[in-house]
Amino acid sequence: MSVPPGQADSADFIPCAHDYQVSCGNCRLNAICLPLALESEDIDQLDRIIQRSKPLQKSQHLYRQADEFESVYAVRSGALKAYRTTDDGREQVTGFYFPGEILGFDGIGNNAHASSAKALETSAICEIPFSSLQKLSSLMPNLQRHFFQLMSREITEDQQLITLLSKNSADERVAALMLSISTRNARRKLSATQFRLPMSRVDIGNYLGLTVETVSRVFSRMQKLSILRVDNKEIEILDPAGLRHMANLSH
Amino acid sequence: MSVPPGQADSADFIPCAHDYQVSCGNCRLNAICLPLALESEDIDQLDRIIQRSKPLQKSQHLYRQADEFESVYAVRSGALKAYRTTDDGREQVTGFYFPGEILGFDGIGNNAHASSAKALETSAICEIPFSSLQKLSSLMPNLQRHFFQLMSREITEDQQLITLLSKNSADERVAALMLSISTRNARRKLSATQFRLPMSRVDIGNYLGLTVETVSRVFSRMQKLSILRVDNKEIEILDPAGLRHMANLSH
DNA sequence: CGTTCCATTGAGATGTGTCAATTCAAGTGG
DNA sequence: CCACTTGAATTGACACATCTCAATGGAACG
């Protein structure tokens, strides 16, 4: 399954997102994905278990609910959504994943994925086989702790979403999501004020427990208040303070 | 901090919940808490790091949000709620914890508890210092995997709650909670149809994203339909199938 | 036997959902 | 390159589930 090294990039060229043969050691996302004090030989070991052979086209699945769990996945480029299908066939979007973020942890518990993951746009993925990761974690305490931390943060984020759904108005929910995306963009050294949403209004509404119409109305309202400029999926945050105020959470 | 062995129980007496010096090896909850193929000497090692010196009175805190994270905790008897306090001072109950269940995982991510945990009634707790657990996990692959699984299941459960909050009506939410408690009771060999709720209506409403009044009305409605008998905190499920139907989820 | 907290019930207000129509954007085939 | 189709987003009018406010009832506790 390994892919032959592509045409040689010039040496000083920063590896672009589509060069999916880049190793963790010189991946520009490693500050997000692996903020670890690992020896370079440790990184080599990790590199060796990671598979980078999975560029995904828009709307293709990375895994599906109830698939056997084998790996967790780091997003290298693009964006994905994770969603659960309920017994009566409805869908619930449980998260959006951007470059540097890791998904698939919900599959460990029962050896089967508890959600499906679908590409929102063309996405490059690093696959991390979990059994290898477990072995490596036993040998590298830092790595073990790192993955405990990643899972713990996923729990914390889910709990934030629970709070959002349980306590906040439509305005607050949408504002909070815009702020979240903005923050995560900044972490990747991208603009915190201008970006293109990779997901549809339906996905946003589904994620936030709102209908499409309500999401749309909130965007219109925000635009009228000059908090956001909205042009279909292109978003510009005109008034970050106003947006934070609307989100009603000062984090 | 260690407590002297209590008055000797007669040898054939099943250790009761208040005998908090029982070891994991003969704890009647270990099928829930530690369903592991561990050598008895492994269990001994685990026993040695676990501290059982924390009986908690009703409304006392086990830990508070932003406290330094040191341990995760297994409930031995009683019940607790976990809740987050938002920036603007409101509370969100994120979970209820019953005997055999483990809480505190959300603190690993940032070395500080992301929620508070409070006893809903007198509760006995096993404290599991996380640094010891990490070391032990490196040596015992089964144990490492077990804790990855526990955290993964917490993620899955949070995502179920997200779905519930996002997609389900008040009736469905309350019904789902009653079913969850019933199932967890059954796992502990207690009645699946009769139990006493340890939490208040306020807590239930808070957890489910509803007001107290709505929770109360749902209970009244369920009683009118002969699905439940409700006498303050005493619950009897009269029509389990009807309850499942009302919850609108067949799991 | 008050006092206090918790739970229940009712009446009315409101935010968001539902239904429906329109516009806009993207892709397809003639 | 232009019609045509299709899906996504917006906007409006109305309905309804849940919230809010308020009063009452009941259990627990000193």
UniProtKB/TrEMBL annotation, chains A, B:
Gene3D superfamilies: Jelly Rolls (2.60.120.10), Winged helix-like DNA-binding domain superfamily/Winged helix DNA-binding domain (1.10.10.10). It holds the Pfam family cNMP_binding. Residues 34-104 form the Cyclic nucleotide-binding domain. One of its GO terms (molecular function) is DNA binding. Residues 168-241 form the HTH crp-type domain. Keywords: DNA-binding, Transcription, Transcription regulation. InterPro entries: cNMP-bd_dom (IPR000595), cNMP-bd_dom_sf (IPR018490), Env_Response_Regulators (IPR050397), HTH_CRP (IPR012318), RmlC-like_jellyroll (IPR014710), Tscrpt_reg_HTH_Crp-type_CS (IPR018335), WH-like_DNA-bd_sf (IPR036388), WH_DNA-bd_sf (IPR036390). It comes from the Bacteria. The keyword Cytoplasm does not apply. GO terms for cellular component: cytosol. CDD domains: CAP_ED, HTH_CRP. NCBIfam families: PRK11161.1 (NF008365). This is Fumarate/nitrate reduction transcriptional regulator Fnr.
